[in-house]
Amino acid sequence: MNEITVTPKLVVDSADRAIDFYRRALSAEPGVRYAGPDGRVVYAEFRLGASTLSIKDADEHDPAAGALFTLDVPDANAVGAALEQAGATVVFPIDDQPYGLRQGRLRDPFGIQWIVSQQTDDLSPDEVQRRLDSTPG
């Protein structure tokens, strides 16, 4: 059996603006772009690091829908700041978490939520659970 890969497809209002946002905020590299006769994007790709995502404009068949993605990065504060500067809003501020990550969540102007995550501690699953069990609810 061939190796399975998954390519997330974002459905947003204004795919071209979204790709530009990801380019400015996350250094995304635009790829192929196809538009219908009305000019709306029916399929486009962009790369984030080693990952390829696809995107299209919302239409009567595919309404704009939110999504949640985790970006594993070397500097969560810098990436969070770049997202904010480009127009994202903070859902959860970037902070040290008990499970060994510096993490926060931002929503981009297209409704997509991005968890920005930086590993700070190399913890066993048991240690993560112990820390979560001792964290006030």
From TrEMBL:
Q: What is this protein's record name?
A: VOC family protein
Could you name the domain of life of the organism this protein comes from? Bacteria
The cross-references to Pfam families, in alphabetical order and at most eight, read: Glyoxalase (PF00903)
- What SUPFAM superfamilies has UniProt attached to this entry? Glyoxalase/Bleomycin resistance protein/Dihydroxybiphenyl dioxygenase
Q: Tell me the classification of the organism that encodes this protein.
A: Bacteria, Bacillati, Actinomycetota, Actinomycetes, Jiangellales
Q: Which residues form the VOC domain?
A: 1-119
InterPro entries the UniProt entry points to: Glyas_Bleomycin-R_OHBP_Dase, Glyas_Fos-R_dOase_dom, VOC_core
Annotated Gene3D superfamilies: 3.30.720.110, 3.30.720.120
Alphabetized PANTHER family for the sequence: BNAUNNG04460D PROTEIN-RELATED, VOC DOMAIN-CONTAINING PROTEIN
